[in-house]
């Protein structure tokens, strides 16, 4: 089963937008056992897109198109696909009503150009888009050499992903025959090289059917185990390997699959009926923001204080002016005080704090850029950690946020072991 | 002059690595007036690569290949290119000596596999690689339809970029004749369709040499103007169009090029010697986090309060319990109180606040999911805005953050008009 991914948009060709859609789709399809054989980016031109559709269906059985479904002149995917199949565009009255209602709810009338978004090539099946105005569409058919299929999805990543998972994947599944079992193990707080050393005993002697990939990010390293099982097998090798890796990497492992650190921490808090508050200096609110990305976070996130400047640390978190002067804002004492005070002030079970120099400038000889203190107060003690990071501001910020959430996660996991 | 970018590597197809090389090359080539017409990713297979080279030279004059020049079995670019031109690989003795010396300096002998890296297809010109063991290669030739060229570069981004700049660009320059001028205008607070209606008077009658693309995101719509100028022209059409668009879209335009909303707001505050504090409910710290993404933000961001639950709104922001009960946390009064209190409490020039229901659940009949109130206190008054958004939590959050920063930006811009 050969698959071509076809991404549409001038913004991709000139590098204004990086093609993360193709990366996500490649990863997702690999999980379904359908590794793409090629991915192509083409600009907003009907002629060029038609050429690429021809080439794609010459070499591939399945073509997945993303992008070019917006309401403007330069959105040509609908026209190109209709032209390729020699059919007309047809208004989907039901979908147009949905678009109109969406605008009405916001007190607006539907702009004439959005009408085009309710039109799809004749003979195609509408793929509803719950989050946007552009529906996708799908067509599959039989040929002498086997089944062929075309899926067309919007380029907005969130919309594309949901539609791929919920609507395209179930339609593709019957076309594929080679199951692949994948397990992703999520770690944080350990670098790629050290993780590799730690796992050498098991990864040094892998069976042929199994491979392991390291996927690093500022939030931690994910390990993806892939087992290309023969027909009828059920991925037991991958499962056994995942169990061994989890045992060896122990405390660094926080989850599997789509688990996020913020969701794992939230679930632990919810299960214990506990709450958290934050006192953030260098992260400027990013810890609170990430914690509350999880739906239902109000069950365990109370809030907190963004203490970016020293006067806020003094006024809202009662950090002593003297301590700030003597030890500096980036110090263990200040981190401890911030975490304990925000916990006491809000009545939360746990207080988390961050203070540091994210860079790219602002360091001193004693406290170079990348010097960070974080603290977690609660459960009868306050634990702290010092991080020594690089000079890249935004990457540093993500690493501080991850380390701070992980400090709480470990506290909760150890706590629950102690309680049990 | 049509250009195809051909990126080689299984890791790109399965999304293990995002194709940032193609994005960088697209941007770089656009600057040289050679926007790529297509970019293709292909796996580590001689046959598939040969097919793509054939297709590339059918539709394009210039093909730039990256990747597949490493020392291992799965690095097939050399073989595929040699096969495509029907020539043999030839050892470049001088380059091999360079590789050998590089290993010797580290006290190692050169591994046999690295010998292959000094071999390039016959008749090609070596492109030296100052930072790695794989040289690139280049070939240009005349055809009945004009000049053709092939550049092959390593996939390591740092090596590829230097070689592109220093060796490929000077060789490409004589082949191109059409400079391209690009201007990006950044807007927020207006949707793609309404923006198009607003700009219809000027975009409805564009000269042939100019095109405009809409690039939407939850943070706003960017407009990219591209002028394919004739020889000797200097992009005046694009500049004139940019001025007209900026006049028509007026208050929705916050910047150009790489400007970000947080940077624009920061620069305005800094220029006026003013400061800002935040009181965030539904955004959980995301406004503060984005403001402090900018290096040097400590000059104008004081901090603030994350008031996710009502008790924090009462305790740290003095919101009346009665108001919370009577009007609910998601109300104009509460937004006003939060913004004014955080400003007064921290001594900032401006206070920003957010309160709302981001979803996906938690709405009521009167206040459905997506109901948001934001406020900006300062400069002698408190302005508020009600947003009606969709049901997607994270997209809603980004839109609230953008709208909140924009509320302050407009206040600052109007203020400076009034002051002047």
Summarize the structure in short.
The structure is a homodimer of 420-residue chains. Chain A is built from 14 helices and 17 strands.
Write the layout of secondary structure elements.
2 copies of one chain form a homodimer.
Chain A: E1 3-8, H1 10-13, H2 20-31, E2 38-42, H3 46-59, E3 62-66, H4 77-85, E4 89-91, H5 93-105, E5 119-121, E6 125-127, E7 136-143, E8 146-153, H6 157-172, E9 180-187, H7 192-203, E10 210-217, E11 220-228, H8 236-249, E12 253-256, H9 261-272, E13 276-280, H10 286-291, E14 301-307, H11 310-317, H12 321-327, H13 332-346, E15 350-356, E16 371-378, E17 381-388, H14 393-419
Parallel strand pairs in A: 1-2, 1-3, 3-8, 13-14, 13-15
Antiparallel strand pairs in A: 4-5, 6-7, 7-8, 9-11, 9-12, 10-11, 15-16, 16-17
Helix pairs in contact in A: 2-6, 3-4, 7-8, 9-14
Structure description:
The structure is a homodimer of 420-residue chains. With 420 residues, chain A is of the alpha/beta class. Helices cover 40% and strands 25% of the residues of chain A. The first copy, chain A, contains 14 helices and 17 strands. Chain A has helices at 10-13, 20-31, 46-59, 77-85, 93-105, 157-172, 192-203, 236-249, 261-272, 286-291, 310-317, 321-327, 332-346, 393-419, and strands at 3-8, 38-42, 62-66, 89-91, 119-121, 125-127, 136-143, 146-153, 180-187, 210-217, 220-228, 253-256, 276-280, 301-307, 350-356, 371-378, 381-388. A six-stranded mixed β-sheet of chain A has the order 2-1-3-8-7-6, sandwiched between helices. A five-stranded mixed β-sheet of chain A has the order 14-13-15-16-17. The first copy, chain A, has a four-stranded antiparallel β-sheet with strand order 10-11-9-12. In chain A, a hairpin with an 8-residue loop joins β6 and β7. In chain A, α2 runs parallel beside α6. The first copy, chain A, starts with a strand and ends with a helix. Mean pLDDT of chain A is 91; it is low at 416-420.
């Amino acid at each position: 089963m050969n698959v071509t991914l076809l991404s549409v948009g001038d913004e991709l060709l000139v590098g204004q937008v990086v093609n993360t859609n193709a990366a996500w789709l490649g990863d997702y399809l690999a999980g379904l056992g359908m590794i793409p054989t090629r991915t192509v980016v083409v600009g907003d031109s009907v002629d060029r897109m038609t050429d690429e559709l021809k080439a794609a269906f010459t070499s591939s059985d399945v073509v997945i198109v993303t992008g070019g479904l917006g309401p403007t002149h330069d959105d040509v995917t609908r026209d190109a696909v209709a032209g390729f199949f020699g059919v007309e565009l047809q208004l989907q009255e039901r979908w147009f009503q949905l678009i109109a209602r969406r605008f009405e709810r916001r007190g607006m009338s539907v702009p004439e150009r959005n009408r085009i978004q309710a039109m799809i090539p004749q003979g195609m099946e509408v793929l509803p888009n719950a989050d946007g105005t552009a529906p996708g569409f799908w067509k599959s058919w039989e040929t002498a050499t086997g089944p062929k299929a075309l899926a067309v999805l919007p380029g907005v990543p969130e919309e594309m992903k949901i539609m791929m998972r919920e609507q395209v994947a179930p339609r593709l599944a019957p076309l594929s025959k080679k199951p692949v079992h994948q397990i992703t193990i999520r770690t944080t707080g350990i670098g790629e090289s050290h993780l590799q050393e730690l796992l050498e005993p098991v990864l040094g002697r892998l069976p042929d059917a199994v491979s392991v990939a390291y996927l690093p990010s500022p939030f931690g390293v994910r390990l993806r185990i892939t087992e290309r099982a023969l027909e009828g097998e059920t991925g037991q090798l991958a499962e056994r390997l995942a169990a061994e890796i989890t045992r060896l990497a122990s405390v660094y492992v926080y989850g599997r699959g789509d688990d996020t650190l913020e969701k794992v921490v939230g679930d632990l808090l919810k299960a214990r009926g506990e709450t958290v508050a934050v006192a953030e200096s260098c992260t400027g609110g990013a810890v609170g923001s990430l914690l509350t990305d999880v739906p239902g976070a109000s069950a365990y996130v109370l809030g907190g204080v963004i203490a970016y400047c020293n006067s806020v640390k003094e006024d809202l978190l009662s950090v002593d002016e003297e301590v700030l002067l003597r030890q500096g804002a980036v110090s263990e004492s200040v981190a401890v005080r911030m975490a304990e005070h925000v916990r006491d002030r809000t009545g939360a079970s746990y207080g988390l704090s961050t203070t540091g120099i994210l860079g790219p400038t602002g360091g001193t000889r004693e406290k170079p850029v990348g010097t960070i203190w974080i603290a977690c107060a609660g459960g009868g003690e306050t634990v702290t950690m010092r991080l020594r990071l690089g000079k890249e501001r935004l990457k540093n910020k993500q690493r501080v946020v991850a380390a701070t959430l992980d400090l709480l996660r470990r506290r909760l996991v150890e706590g629950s072991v102690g309680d049990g």
